[in-house]
Amino acid sequence: MFKISSALLLSHLLIVSASALAQDPNTSTKVPEELPQLGSKGTQKTSLTGLKFDHFGDKVKRQFISGQNGMLAWFTLAKGAEVPWHTHEAEQISHVISGEMILTVGIDEKEYRLKRGDIIVIPPHVPHKGRALVDTVEIDVFSPIRKDWLEGTDQYLQDID
Fold it and tell me: pTM for the whole thing?
């Protein structure tokens, strides 16, 4: 099974588990007492329209939200947009929502042609770059979070014309 973002995977597993529990009358759904009873402190709710746009040149737009350990980003890439070579400590999971792009990964510069519905996992510290073949929308999930984005030190994006 493909490794999917921890938040998405957890959500899916909870739904599947709840469904399985509901079908098995011999299974207790009581939360074990040894688990902490966490409140909602730190919980964020927003929508895509509630997230600010970061513009890099006239072809790359980014929106993102960050938790303590994971980050979700929504990229809108105009045809011909290029995201330069970069690397980071985060594992990256990318999902192409629409369009088509080339993602070049690693020191051997392996090219992956990604289209709508494709998902790719890039391990931490692996160099990569991207190029939109047509107008493209893609979602990236990062863990750990991209502190360079939060601090505004993502120079590889800042330098896009």
Answer: 0.75
